[in-house]
Specification:
The chain is an alpha/beta fold. It has a single domain, classed as 3-Layer(aba) Sandwich (Rossmann fold), CATH 3.40.50. The chain has helices spanning about 15-25, 40-45, 90-95, 125-130, 145-160, 165-180, 195; strands at about 50-55, 60, 70, 85-90, 105, 115, 120-125, 135-140, 200-205. The strands form 3 sheets. It has a 4-stranded mixed beta sheet with strand order 1-5-8-9, sandwiched between helices. The protein has a 3-stranded antiparallel beta sheet with strand order 2-3-4.
């Protein structure tokens, strides 16, 4: 498989706010890895024991070869021999990643997208995480705002933490945006479906009562 080019990726200032808010909800059982800590090596070290995995960052989509699509983790400035590139591609998830997570959340643009393959269905990151062992995946259907996404997913986790099933927690977070009460003084600007309708649930909707997140 070929490598993808990470050079066009820009800053997502609200992604750190998002991760820190979610981590605070699950203390002391949550672990956050930001900046230089957010490596492929670290992911592989926690994947088998984490019940929830949350990724906040960029997705790089390859419409022609969907198995090359990737989540952007930390890219080393000077990659060393034997080190990962920092781009977690779908084919790597299929080949090298194994987990027993109840939920994987891909908080990035177009993370639910892929390419229909005859006899296989839609190939992409969502399918790859299911293959790796995730029971359910929340991902987005289009490019999203990092600010409204941070608010939406923080609300989603609050409802999840209260014991709602995954589908109902996502529904309640989205209804909060529709009603203009997402818990932020500027949230009324986010009532348009662009800000809340992109995220959808794939897999087992019955998971509930999650206690820890990484």
């Amino acid at each position: 498989m070929t490598e993808v080019d990470p050079s066009p990726l820009g800053q997502l200032p609200w992604s750190q706010v998002e991760v820190e808010a979610i981590t605070a909800l699950y203390r002391p059982r949550a672990e956050a890895y930001l900046g230089e800590q957010a490596t492929e090596e670290k992911l592989r070290s926690v994947a088998r024991r984490a019940r929830i995995l949350h990724f906040a960052g960029h997705t790089i989509l390859d419409d022609r070869f969907p198995l090359n699509s990737a989540l952007a983790l930390t890219v080393p400035l000077v990659p060393k021999n034997g080190r990962q590139s920092g781009l977690l591609q779908a084919w790597e998830i299929y080949d090298n990643l194994r987990m027993a997570a109840d939920l994987v959340v891909l908080s990035s643009c177009g993370s639910a997208m892929g390419r229909p393959v005859r006899g296989e269905g839609l190939m992409g990151l969502t399918r790859a995480f299911h293959y790796a062992g995730a029971r359910s995946v929340v991902a987005s259907l289009w490019g999203v705002s990092d600010r409204s996404t941070a608010l939406l997913l923080s609300s989603f986790y609050r409802h999840l933490r209260q014991g709602l099933a995954t589908d109902m927690a996502l529904r309640e977070a989205q209804l909060g945006f529709i009603r203009g009460g997402a818990g932020d003084s500027g949230s009324r600007r986010f009532t348009h479906p662009f800000h809340w309708a992109a995220f959808v649930l794939f897999g087992d909707y019955r998971q509930s009562g999650h206690k820890s997140v990484e």
